[in-house]
Amino acid sequence: MRNFIVSVFVIIFLSSLLQPFLPWYIVAAVAFVTGYFIKQSPLSAFAAGFVAIFLLWISYAFVLSHANNDLLARKVATLLPMGGHVSLLLLVTGIIGGLVSGLSALTGRFAAAL
Amino acid sequence: MNYFKFIFSLLITIALIVVLNSQLGVAPPFAKFLNPYQGFWQNAENAKTWKDDEAHVPGLKDEVKVYFDKRLVPHVFAKNDQDLYFMQGYITAKYRLWQMEIQTHSAAGRISEIIGEKTIDVDRMQRRIGLGYGAETAQDYIAKDPASKQLIDAYCDGVNAYIKTLKPKDYPVEYKLLDYQPEAWNPLKVALLLKNMANMLSVFEYDIENTNFIAKYGEQNFRELYPDFIDAEDPIIPIGTPWNVTPMDSTNHSQMQAGNAGVIRNELFANALTKPDEITGSNNWAVSGSKTKSGKPILCNDPHLKLSLPSIWYEMQLVSPNMNVYGATLPGSPAVIIGFNDSISWGVTNGGRDVRDWYKIKFKDALRNEYEYNGQWLKAEKKVERYKVRGKPDVLDTVIYTRFGIVVFDQNFGTADSKKNLAMRWTAHLPSNEFKTFYQLNCGKNYDDYINALKNYTCPAQNFVFASRSGDIAIKQQGRFPLRDKATEQGKFVSNGTTDKDEWKGYIPAADNPTIKNPERGFVSSANQHPTDSTYPYYYPGLGVYENYRNRRINKLLTEGKDIDADFMKKMQTDNYNLLASEALPVLLLLLNKSDLNDHEKKIVDALSKWDYYNNAGEVSPVYFDIWWNELRKLLWDEMMDKNVPMKQPSFYVTVAFLKHDSTSQFYDNLSTPNKKETRADIVLMAFKRIEDTLRKKEFTEVNEPYENDDNYKKDDLRTHDWGSYKDTKISHLAMIDPFSSMHVCNGGNIGIINATNTTNGPSWRMIVDEGAMKAYIVFPGGESGNPGSAYYDNMVNTWAKGQYYEADFIKQGDELEAKKLFVSTFKP
Fold it and tell me: How high is the mean pLDDT in each 10-residue block of chain B (829 residues)?
């Protein structure tokens, strides 16, 4: 459990540091490295990767959109189409980032077991 | 086993990343688009904080300050003209980059680079009508004028300086949706923007349509349905104004006897360029001090275009030691296009004169290397156009240039009989420098400066209205117009490209273009009507492309007006009086056989009889009239709707006169009912019977009252649909993205009405300049920002729809704006 929490924090910390300068898929590299070096079960590694980016992307997107009164998010949530529901758009954003990060962490965990 | 798990997991992860980073059909690359660090969330403009900022911009000579007012209108203060245009480019790019670029990509025939193969024929059309060719010609010509070149270069440098500051996260949201990147700006793109305008505005020729009609229905019908002038003509230059013009000789002196006559009148053509079928037009007018409260002129302009977002115009004030000018700028192009400075004001409406002609080219053989001209074979110039297509190999298209222009339709392009080689000659291909005109207007001080500025303006021809603080008013139609021989009606029909008989022989000198200064009646005006009456010494095809309703309404109101002030003008620009209906409806009601109507239909007749002819948003009668009128035209002019033989419908004015005076014409018979011969009364009734059906079928959207599901709806309820909901004006995003569009804008107006707003077109800019009070009132359907994630994207739409205005902050010093600014940006070299 302790390693799970540490992993989540490490991924959040490194990703938020690197993402402003690098393409979005840098989160995959961060999660992979974290999964490789921090010992935990495969399930825990995946969950840590998923939760970290899920939370990070949703919270940052929320902050940006909140300051915008959700003006743009509502339009995009109509376009994609999600019936204009910003919460759904946030959820999808989180899941997409979470999945990539979770799978990368899992791959890192499997690489460590080689 | 461990290897297997690792490889499996690795492959899935990589596949997922690749999928989420790629465009899938029309969908954006999901993770790229949705991640909050680079994706669209970054475009969500912070609505709460506006802070002054400062930046160093390499390329500037001196400090420039930009004051943004409460509507985000930039007021640019520079210490020299080069810095001024540099910063105009920089700021425009900051708020409108995607719009600028997509419009030039479109004009250059490069949309397929972004969209893919489905737009390839759209791109080919743009290059075959020579928009890129025209832009290159203009660019080469401008390069010969160092002063113009320097300022245009400065503008481009400014745009590029801004683009250099961008990281992918900063790209406008449309780049992220369509997954591509902005490229550098250049003078060719500036020229392309003007050609894009020319392609919207100088397209009113009907050579192919006219030839088709006269070949099919004969000379007499053609003269009746497409007269050069009508009896109610109310031209820009008032009837009876003497001409101080010694015309150039435009008679055809061709020595060529061989071959056919120049004009083709006995052949059908399957291809013509599509034209806007419902033209809303533009208005401008200026009244002299004799008619105003202040004793000084007032100038008004509302150019009507297909409405779009980001807004067509970008409002700006530009100040240097050389000028202080305010008005509408065209994003991507330097200077103010419509506006005012501390001495003069000006505005434009479209001239609409026929400035392009079609020639049938005869090639020697299938190789198409030579074509016949005056009994000789001339060499054809071939150019291979290369199109990059997203996700596909390049497409090549050979285009042939002749002395009669580019061969638009040929064996490789067009349908059906496209083996007929049709070349198009167009003034948009002539060397020209329209920037210089606008620059000189921007710095202009008086009438002489205005006339001098217009001198070289070429295309698209405009009616430039003018007023000065010193009290002059004037109007002039300016463009380059080919000399046309009246005897052969040169330019009205397709011509033979085998001789010089119908070739352009020269151009009307700018000094001879229709103009009037300080007329006795105390006002000048234009609304896309005929520039002159039939006594103008130069011939030009008339043909019912000209407006017959807004002009008469405007001139009536201005003639009656006394003690005119800005409020009078506001009421006038938003006037919804339907002059067409006032002339057409009595005729229709007279011709309607009322014994065949049910109770509900009788109530419609009753409502129409009581109507005061105002197309206000809350009225129902305009809906009934609109449907009746449109359905009747469909039934009456079905002969002209043949898809294989393009023809033009007669004008509204001619249609009313025809219904009134011609009781037995062959055109009343509907072609879709071969066993029945309809009469005038039959089709008037048939069209009327369609009113109810049309209303029932029309889908009403959520903000409007649903028709069939409305519990309160009873068959005899006449209050169900108001004009505003029925017309349902939409200001569409340039990429047709509905959530980025302004939908269901509720207002009045229509074609032929001063407030010429229909479903898609309308006043793209309303401006009133009161030279006495030194005040200007402005509104446009959109906002200053091009970002759909900004509160300033469409914040003026409702004000515009309600017919209200903003007073422009026309300032001399930046600090005058201190109390009512959003923020100030300071730029240093």
Answer: 90 95 89 96 89 94 96 97 98 98 96 94 94 96 96 98 96 96 97 93 90 95 93 94 88 61 84 76 95 97 94 97 97 97 96 93 92 94 95 94 94 74 94 96 97 94 97 97 89 91 91 96 96 94 86 97 96 97 97 91 94 93 96 95 91 95 92 91 96 78 38 41 88 94 91 94 96 95 97 95 95 86 94
Residue with tokens 């113009």: B148
Helices (H) and strands (E) counted in chain B, each on its own, are 21, 30
Cβ-in-10-Å burial (0-12, 13-18, 19+) of A92 comes to middle
Tokens at B205, concatenated? 């020729």
Give the Cα-Cα-Cα angle B563, B566, B570 (nearest 5 degrees): 115
Of the CA atoms within 13 Å of residue B379, those in its CB half-sphere come to 3
Question: Which strands form B742-745's sheet, in the order they lie side by side?
Answer: B308-309, B729-733, B742-745
Question: The tokens of B159 are what?
Answer: 């745009």
State the pLDDT at residue B706.
35
Residue length of chain B: 829
> Are B730 and B786 in contact, with CB atoms under 8 Å apart?
no
Decide: B469 and B342 in contact? Cβ < 8 Å.
yes
Chain centroid to CA B197: how far? 7
Of B53, B104, B64, which is closest to residue B87 (Cα–Cα)?
B64
Interface of A with B (CB under 8 A): 19-20, 23-25, 28, 57, 60-61, 64-65, 67-76, 78-79, 89, 92-93, 96-97, 99-100, 103-104, 106-107, 110-111, 113-114
Confidence of residue A16 (pLDDT cuts 50, 70, 90): very high
Q: What is the DSSP string of B66-102?
A: EEEETT--EEEE-SSHHHHHHHHHHHHHHHHHHHHHH
Q: Which runs of E-coded beta strand occur in B254-313?
A: 283-287, 298-302, 304-306, 308-309
Mode of pairing for the β-strands spanning B806-807 and B495-496: unpaired
Contacts of B485 (CB under 8 A, 6+ apart): B250, B251, B252, B502, B539
- Can you give the pLDDT at residue B719? 41
Residue B485: per-residue pLDDT: 87
Question: Smallest CA–CA separation between A43 and chain B, in Å?
Answer: 13
How many whole angstroms separate alpha carbon B623 and alpha carbon B600?
15
What integer pLDDT is reported at residue B716 of this predicted model?
39
How far does CA B169 lie from the centroid of its chain?
33
Other C-beta atoms closer than 10 Å to the C-beta of B15 total 11
Is the Cα dihedral B465, B468, B474, B477 positive or negative? negative
Chain-chain contact of A71 with B44 (C-beta, under 8 angstroms) = yes
Please report the pLDDT score of residue B657 as a whole number: 96
Distance CA A88, CA B94 (A): 31
What's at B100, amino acid-wise?
M
> What does residue B218 show for φ and ψ, rounded to 5 degrees?
90, 165
Global pTM reads: 0.94
CA-based nearest distance A21→chain B, Å: 9
Residues of B in contact with A61 (CB under 8 A): 34, 36, 41
Q: What is the ipTM of this complex?
A: 0.97
Which of B10, B45, B739 is facing A68, going by the closest CB pair?
Answer: B45
CB-hemisphere CA count at 13 Å for B380? 26
Instruction: Copy the structure tokens of residue B464.
Output: 């430039």
C-alpha pair distances (Å), B585 with each of B547, B581, B589, B612, B625: 19, 5, 6, 11, 7
The residue ranges of every structural domain in chain A are 2-112
Q: Which amino acid is at B211?
A: T
Q: What is the pLDDT of residue B780?
A: 97
Q: Please, what is the angle between helix A86-112 and helix A71-79, to 10°?
A: 80
* Cα B808 to Cα B786: distance, rounded to the nearest angstrom: 20
